[in-house]
């Protein structure tokens, strides 16, 4: 069974004028089919307004489809009775670290989720400790969240999600507001989590370097999935990506420039190591 | 015309338990027409520094000269300074508030006391400079896409015709094309109007591509102040303070370590490609 599966997913909302009258419909998602297997790392790319965040919000039933179906862990998100099962299967991390932390002490914040799920107190403390350890923030457990850096806050937000023990984590541009160090911290944390806990990860991002380790990449444009494949397959198509307002990692760009200048390099080079080896073979 | 800082210190909440020195003995001069990048990790003092440039924050000690005049002297015209040194904050679109785009952009010049006619003339000119499409002038700023909102907000500062434009992370949250478009537009402005541009960014790749000079901030101190190639040559030290060099610089170092005869100072894809081709042709 897929961890996340959508079939002909459509999401429409009403457009209103200043007086609040409906003046038409907007289709933010238009017939999207995606499949994410348990344990997979899937990235979703797309320009601002392409529908990727709207799609992400369907993965834990913040939004429900107006057409087609979204299943999370086999449960139809349209069924009101499944709401809590869906939300327990898929946890969400958002862009702004300051908007998703509510506790006045780090460990309280992380314990908030499991407490709401009705987890017994002893078990909550165990989960808090375990989650903070998993994101490398255990030593800050008694700190006030507002003294943390952006990257640290995002790691606490991730711990808060992990503490609910979801099978799947959806991260909607978790690094957009962070400095390079914070970005590295968060990406490293996500990779560690995959190793330690085998969680399924869905990462939405504008940073191309962050998706080179993904198992699968979906590219969205005006509500449709317009490309999907492995990072290598996707980043081999530099011109097509540019058409969708996206980019490729700098190392891929450099390899592409060198190809244009006549060097016989393979397409879709994603890592510095690959490029160095390919160039050394040529010289 | 220049901004000149002499031994600027800034201390937050002096005399309390939260006392923190955010700027330590900063001296620097930015001349008219320069394109300067400021980098530093979160909390390094970048934002505090740029808010000194137009007098929004006042140094605890030290002097700041704009156009040769000490702005801390009594009677200095701060209002004039603030229309000459325009500051675009992070996520400036959060500050949009008017009923339509053109009124929003007019707000700055209106406060400068200009006539309605002149305000609109400047607003249109500013919107054109940032490449904002005319068909949306009368639209509510809240109905625009992220990239268009950002342009409208930057136009709001440009409409005051500043001589210096300071931008704090102008591309945060934008998609790659949106990033390139905004920065290309700013570069165009810089080249064609001799405007000084001061760009704060977390993207080393963007900084390397656009600026002529980089100021590196660390714990409130100026760590480096030099041309990009010279600054990024210190990539090991930059890493220690939470920064990095552009990805291509690392590629060049890796190639050299593998015995290829290349110079390692490339900081952009174009430079790196040229340097690698040169080594193949030699």
Automatic annotation (TrEMBL), chain A:
InterPro entries, per the entry: AAA+_ATPase, ABC_transporter-like_ATP-bd, ABC_transporter-like_CS, ABC_transpr_CbiO/EcfA_su, ECF_ABC_transporter_ATP-bd, EcfA_1
Subcellular location: Cell membrane
The UniProt record lists the keyword Transport: yes
Pfam families: ABC_tran
Major localization class: membrane
SMART domains the UniProt entry points to: AAA
Signal peptide positions on this chain: none
Domain of life of the source: Bacteria
Topology versus the membrane: Peripheral membrane protein
Ion transport recorded as keyword: no
Keywords assigned: ATP-binding, Cell membrane, Membrane, Nucleotide-binding, Translocase, Transport
Domain ABC transporter: 4-247
Family designation: Belongs to the ABC transporter superfamily.
Protein name in the entry: Energy-coupling factor transporter ATPase
Organism: Faecalicatena faecalis
UniProtKB/TrEMBL annotation, chain B:
Pfam families: ABC_tran
InterPro entries to which the protein is assigned, alphabetical: AAA+_ATPase, ABC_transporter-like_ATP-bd, ABC_transporter-like_CS, ABC_transpr_CbiO/EcfA_su, ECF_ABC_transporter_ATP-bd, EcfA2
Keywords for this protein: ATP-binding, Cell membrane, Hydrolase, Membrane, Nucleotide-binding, Translocase, Transport
PROSITE patterns per record: ABC_TRANSPORTER_1, ABC_TRANSPORTER_2
Known EC number: 7.-.-.-
Main function: ATP-binding (A) component of a common energy-coupling factor (ECF) ABC-transporter complex.
Protein name stated in the entry: Energy-coupling factor transporter ATP-binding protein EcfA2
Source organism: Faecalicatena faecalis
